[in-house]
Design goal:
Residues 10-20 have a biased composition (Acidic residues). This is Cytochrome b-c1 complex subunit 6. Belongs to the UQCRH/QCR6 family. With 82 residues, the protein is mainly alpha-helical. Helix content is 60%, strand content 0%. The termini are far apart.
Length: 82
């Protein structure tokens, strides 16, 4: 009696991780157009982190950076989306 090896399951093709184009565009905008806002946010974070007790937050700096980033990105996203 012959014993046949069980058929190997078909190899699954590796799926490419999809990259959201908006993430890439936003990163480019921060680096190219909003670097000054990022610098201000980083300075604020450093200042707040260096203190034990402070009421200061960096919310305004964060909002400014996000506003700049999204304002830049919205112009680019429609050029790249089909």
């Amino acid at each position: 009696m012959k014993v046949h090896a069980a058929a190997a399951p078909p190899e699954e093709e590796e799926e490419e991780d999809l990259v959201d184009p908006m993430d890439t565009i936003r990163q480019e905008c921060v680096e190219k157009h909003c670097a000054n806002f990022l610098e201000k946010l980083n300075e604020c974070n450093d200042r707040v982190s260096s203190r034990k007790k402070t009421a200061e937050t960096c919310a305004e700096e964060l909002v400014d950076l996000l506003h700049c980033r999204d304002h830049c990105a919205i112009k680019e996203i429609f050029k790249r989306v089909k």
